[in-house]
Amino acid sequence: MLGKSGAGIILCHHGKGRGRKRVPQQEGNKENGSFQRFPGKENNLQSVSLHCLAGPLRGQTFRLDGGPVFIFGRYAKAHFSLAADPATSHLHFVVDISDDRVRILDLDSTNGIVINEKHHGGKQGPPMRRFQTLQSGDTVLAGSCLFRVAVAEAAPFKELASILDAAPAAGSAPGEKPGESGDAFEIAGGFGTGDNFNPDALPSIDGYTILEKIGGGGKGVVYKAIKDDTGAEAAVKMMLLSRSKRKKQRLLETFWREIQITKQLDHPNIVRYLGDGVSGGAPYLALEYVEGGTLDELIRRSADGRMDLPQAVPLFIQLLEAAAHMHGRFLVHRDIKPKNVLLDLRRGGTYAAKLSDMGLTCRFTDLDAGEYLPIVTEGGTPAYMPPEQLTDLTRAIPQSDVFSAAATLYHMLTGELLYDFAGRDQTEAIIESNIRPIAELRPELPSAVAGVIDKALSYTPGNRYEDASEMLFAFKAALA
Question: Is residue 335 annotated as part of the catalytic site, yes or no?
Answer without folding.
Answer: yes
